[in-house]
Design a protein that fits this description.
217 residues, 8 helices, 68% helix
């Protein structure tokens, strides 16, 4: 079973925007007001290292960097794309349904998933992948896991967008959400990395799976 045109287009948009977002997230500076303890430590340590050259932390609101602003707007854009993806999952567009994305939630999906994993396990150990038609359920499951992680990233990111303070230290709740956001991002990076590696292996084996998802192919 192939992918409908809406899914192909959305896949490309999500891939480009999310890879950009992850890169920006790693490189940007996060504007944050330090609490009294952190400010004191940042004042003391340079004083020890530079023999009395004291530089007190600047008071007042922190200015957002360009990278942080790009991260915010990209996050809102990705959130919109994810909302469209969820809506498509409720339609009859080929390859869009929840049965395709979350096979472990359905009896027939669990059966197919178990059969494919059992059949392909030996090949995985040798970095060999079965043709796409023999690993359809596993591939779609990976898409589903990436979607779930992306939704979790979008939800935590939205909370941070509205709750992050640039004038006072963060609350414990916001700190917890920020840590959760970072944890989810780490998991998402691992999933996307594994997905890209699988695509490379498939292409090297002559399966040409990019044509299955590329718009206009």
């Amino acid at each position: 079973m192939g992918y409908g045109t809406p899914i192909r287009i959305l896949h490309s948009l999500l891939a480009l925007s999310m890879l950009t977002q992850l890169a920006v997230g790693e490189l940007m500076d996060v504007p944050e007001v330090e609490d009294e303890h952190e400010a004191a430590m940042n004042w003391i340590m340079p004083a020890i290292a530079h023999e009395g050259e004291h530089h007190a932390a600047a008071a007042g609101p922190v200015v957002e960097t360009l990278g942080f602003e790009v991260h915010e707007f990209l996050g809102l854009f990705i959130g919109g794309l994810l909302l469209v993806r969820i809506i498509l999952a409720l339609t009859s567009v080929p390859g869009a349904g929840f049965r395709d994305l979350l096979p472990w939630l359905f009896a027939d999906g669990r059966k197919k998933l178990g059969e494919e994993i059992k059949a392909q396990m030996a090949g995985w150990k040798q970095a060999k992948l079965a043709p796409p038609e023999e690993g359809e359920t596993v591939a779609r499951m990976v898409h589903g896991l990436i979607l779930l992680a992306s939704i979790a990233m979008a939800i935590t990111g939205s909370i941070l967008f509205f709750g992050w303070s640039q004038t006072t230290p963060q609350t414990e709740f916001i700190e917890f959400i920020a840590e959760t956001h970072e944890l989810v991002v780490g998991g998402l990076e691992a999933l996307i990395g594994a997905h890209i590696l699988a695509v490379i292996i498939h292409q090297r084996m002559g399966h040409n799976i990019i044509a299955r998802i590329k718009p206009g192919a």
